Amino acid sequence: MTRATFVTRVVKPLLYVAAVVPAVWVTFALFTGRVEGDQVKYLQHFTGTVVLVTLFLTLAVTPLRRLTGWNEVIRVRRLIGLTAFWYALLHFLSYVVFDQMLSLPDIAEDVGKHPWVLVGFASFLMLVPLAVTSTAGWVRRLGGRRWNRLHRLIYPAAIGGVLHYLWLVKKDVRDPLWFAAALGVLFLARIWAARARRKPARARAPRSEPSPLIPAREDVA
Amino acid sequence: MLIRHPPDISTSEITDELLYTTRREFLLAAGFGLGALSGLLPFARAGLPLTGGTDDDKLTPWDDITGYNNFYEFGTGKDDPARNGGTLRTRPWKVEVAGEVAKPAVYDFDDLLRGLTVEERVYRHRCVEAWSMVVPWNGVPLVSLIDRLEPTSRAKYVEFTTLLDPRQMPGQQRGILDWPYTEGLRMDEARHPLAILVTGLYGKPLPNQNGAPLRLVVPWKYGFKGGKSIVRIRFLETQPATTWNLAAPDEYGFYANVNPEVDHPRWSQARERRIGEFFKRKTLPFNGYADQVAPLYAGMDLRKNF
After folding, report:
1. Three-state DSSP class for B198?
2. Is the dihedral of CA A55, A58, A60, A63 positive or negative?
3. Please, what is the average pLDDT of chain B?
4. Torsion angle defined by CA atoms of residues B128, B131, B137 and B142, in that order, rounded to the nearest 10 degrees
5. Is the confidence at residue B43, as pLDDT, over 50?
6. Does A114 sit within 8 Å of B268, measured CB to CB?
7. B250 contact A CB<8A
8. Cα–Cα distances in Å, from B244 out to A141, B72, B151, B287?
């Protein structure tokens, strides 16, 4: 089995399962009375954490690929990124339904008045076009360069997600600071990976920026 | 030094010991009786009638009240106090009474409250984090203890200090707050009949995670005003510094009256989630006790004095 087929046939199905596990767990925990206290807050905290973790994993793909040369990991990036989006949608819906009871004026007031809500709201909105344009059709329609530029929205969305967490905490900011530190490491890894790539590139003939999905074309279902 | 409190109760007033030791069974039986009664009446709401409220307020279950706590002395997670509270030793327990008071002394906990009638009070409990519960506390009106301690005419405030002992309270090993936790009330607030010193919950001794053996409950204020595991009660002429106010003065005021009109700088206080419910409900001014306590704040700007 080549590394490419290993990723497609083994890693990817496993990741599909892994993506569903948190949703199954949180449903199970809530319906079997395992959660003491504020159940909605638990759901929100849980889904929010999954969003940050999966966003960070999505951001880890490129530096990992650049630093290790395992180009095949790109085949699972969309899956992880979409997982982040689905959990962000759950997180958002739990707020809109349980906290605001679908009242648009109340949502508008909350978003306008409270920066942590605004930042979370904006980060979610940024993820929407990324999820919509995650298909091969959209990559083709936009072209690799424009698609890449659009998908840089993941950076502000991830920063916003961490800020959203930091600003909601009453006093003990250790957990959000761990996430901030992890995000910092990921950004550093990107910069480092980009530099490492640029050096040998100068030696070779100049070439255009590769589209992120082109090496993984056969991955498109 | 331990100064004994002189006996000021005639023997005829003292409850027979057998009655005293079986008081919890009595309370429980009374509770079950009421419960059974409400089961017979199809339209009766479950739970005990609320002191000073007519809302649809059902008692929050024991597991939620004792499993979902903010008690940073045992950790900042909601389940930390239940998990780590076991290291707290609540007997013997001394309470120091100090400051502008006729009889400053260190009391043994049991002597401090001896002879005061323990009442059941079902109160709404509203956390500054916008969740709430309905709790059947057992305790004594704070005013009855204050009267017994005879504060001087200079006493304008009362301060409550929580135990400081990082070995018993592992959360104090981190400087997350300025330990020991202190809270305070204006004298007229402290003398309000709704303010109570709590020793029990659901007719049982107060669990450690809820502030055993002695805590303050002021139902029209945010929960953090209710100092737990109290070791000192001090009467003061000037307003005492309070822990959350020191930690974030723009977010937590001295008064901290429940007020849906005045948001926390970072989040709304207009609604709250009653533990056990999915949708949020409207928060009531003074947590629904406005009829009783609003006159205490007549003429005050509650936006400034949040």
Report:
1. strand
2. negative
3. 88
4. 20
5. no
6. yes
7. no
8. 55, 11, 26, 20
Cα torsion through B265, B270, B276, B279, rounded to 10: -110
Beta-carbon contacts of B217 under 8 Å, excluding residues fewer than 6 positions away, are B121, B123, B125, B137, B139, B195, B196, B197, B198, B226
Structure tokens at B26: 């009595």
Residue A175: closest CA among A49, A84, A88, A66: A49
Which stretches of chain A score pLDDT less than 70? 199-221
By the CB < 8 Å criterion, does B23 face chain A? no
Q: Dig out the tokens for B220 from the structure.
A: 């029209």
Q: Which two three-digit tokens encode residue A136?
A: 């091969």
Query: CB of B246 within 8 Å of any CB in chain A?
Result: no
Instruction: Using the CB atoms, write b or e for A133-148: b if 16+ within 10 Å.
Output: bbeeeebeebebeebb
Helical axes A174-203 vs A39-68, angle rounded to 10°: 20
3-state secondary structure of B234: strand
Surface of B (54-73) touching A: CB under 8 A: 63-64, 67-68, 72
Q: How many CB pairs under 8 A join A and B?
A: 56
Judge if ipTM > 0.90.
no
**Rg, C-alpha atoms of chain A:** 19
Compute the distance between CA of residue B14 and CA of residue B29 in angstroms, rounded to an integer: 22
User: Which tokens sit at B203?
Assistant: 């007719």
Q: Is the N-terminal amide bond of B180 cis, ω within 30° of 0?
A: yes
Interface touch A37/B131, C-beta < 8 Å? yes
Q: Nearest chain A Cα to B268, which residue?
A: A110
E-strand stretches of chain A: none
Q: Does B130 touch chain A (CB under 8 A)?
A: no
Taking the C-alpha atoms of residue B48 and residue B134, their distance in angstroms, rounded to an integer, is 10
Question: pTM of the prediction?
Answer: 0.82
C-alpha to C-alpha distance for B289 and B85, rounded to whole angstroms: 31
pLDDT of residue A194: 84
* pLDDT tens track for B190-204: 999 999 999 999 999
Residue B95: which H helix or E strand, with range? Answer: strand B94-99
Among chain B residues, CA nearest to A95 = B279
Question: What pLDDT score does A199 carry?
Answer: 65
pLDDT at residue A170, rounded to an integer = 87
